[in-house]
Amino acid sequence: MVCDNRKNVEWPYAHPGVAQGFKHHQAIDRETDAHASFAALRHMLFPSYRHYAGVIVDLLIDHHLSRQWSAFHQDTLRDRINTFAKQLSDAKQDMPEDIYAFLSRMIDHGVLDSYHSEAGVRQAIQRISRRCKREITGVDPFELDAHEVEQHCLAIYAHVETESHKASVSN
Asked: Distance between CA atoms of 19 and 126, rounded to whole angstroms?
């Protein structure tokens, strides 16, 4: 979400690794948003969530990825979150203060862990809604065809992993 709010922003004072991380995240967002399964899920949610349908799709992808983490990664999700927390702490001096504070709150409050549960995703929707001009309401995304939603989410993630690997090999 930080990268989503900072599109096309350059931080000349940021550590190169931090800037590279943000660019990588934005590239992942572009791949995700361009995928046919993202469009299908957004279409399913659009009547209820309109402008925010894509945000809800991102949350659903996070939810299904967290539930199927071991199918894509050797380390545990908890290990990855701990590694991210350490990297964040190490990069504090190289990040804009508001971004560091936002990411620290996410870790401190267990937001990244919470996407594993349906209740956690619903709470995330409520948090996002509180920051918006109008309340985000709509059909509970977990009332949709669970198997279809999961298959779309996992297809998106598999595609992003493949493209990310290709990009890292070519660099």
From this structure: 30
